[in-house]
Amino acid sequence: MTTSETDTQHPTPETGDAAARMESAYDGGASARSGAASAAGRGGRRGGAKALAKWGIGGAAVALLGLLPLLNLSLPGVLPGPTYTPGSLHLMAMCMLMAAAALSYHMLLGVAGLLSFGHALYFGAGVYGLAIILDNLDIPLLPAMGLTLLLVIVLAHVVGAVSLRVAGIPFAMVTLAFAEAGSVLVGRNPGGASGGEEGLALATGSLPDFLVGVVNTRNLYWLALVVLVLVFAIVTWVQYSRAGHVAAAVRENELRVRVIGLQPYLIKLLVFVVGGVLASLVGMVYLLLQSGAVPRSVSADFTITLLVMVVLGGVGSRWGAIVGGVFYTLLDQRLTSLANSDAIAGLPDFLRIPLSEPLFILGTLFILVVLFLPGGLTGAAGRLGRGRRARAGQADKARAVLEDAA
Q: Residue 235 burial (CB < 10 Å; 0-12/13-18/19+)?
């Protein structure tokens, strides 16, 4: 028997130790790989469970909002009456529409980093476009809305194709110029189509009966809720699509996106058009809720309002846009009532004058949020939640150390 055969059949201590070490290393690597796989599986399950929980909470919130018109709930100081009354339903519907409009602006600023001062142009195009079509064409509501959307798509393509040739402040100024042109056109009242400064009343002859009149405010509330859910779903889909990821990359470093062979211009144009179309959809439902079109819906002031909503809630956050839209709308409505109250009228002049101006209070609040809450209301809530979880984790660790020591 040869030496090699002997070593093969009866390994020496050295060869046995090496084999053992190799086997141990293999087992360790396999166990590490299996541990990593199991950890990834646990992380995936946790992530899936967390996402499922979020969708469950969102579904429950939507269901609760859908039931509010059937309930007798009161929020003194927030709503003018119980939730089933037309006044409260109108205010809540307005909050949801403004939240949806803020979401459409989030598409530009939060997703693609485009600071636009002309977003009201598309909201106003939805308002006035549908009002003019219903006033001049004898067609039902849905075809009129479809025709309005087609016109807004063309408008957004044209304005975006021109505006996106520049970036930064020049882009903001170009969009502002287009919005001002739209505002001037509405004010000039060409051919009596827009109603000028008086606005344009909604022609109800082609509308379904269940959307006309104060008694049907409940149906308009449900329509506003559907629009908010639809806009949120579209924004979420676009933001997490490949185009949304490229838009986020363009927002962070456009030059790097160009270097790897992608076309930032087309991606930004897509986001620009989608944001404009969503704003016009919200504007059409706003027309139905308000029963008329007013020049402010096309003004630059309305774009600034949307910007304030997004910043208040938190730039870059879809939930922040919703929170900011609801919060701003409620404050705007309730501060107006407060400014005209007897309590403010009886104050000294140095308090009565500023407190009687709701815009002064809103402007002060905006400055405070920018200075002390850079992440907006949702950012502050997120930091508070992380701080609580961190303190809870530290307390658990300290408790475990004490138990081990005992």
A: buried
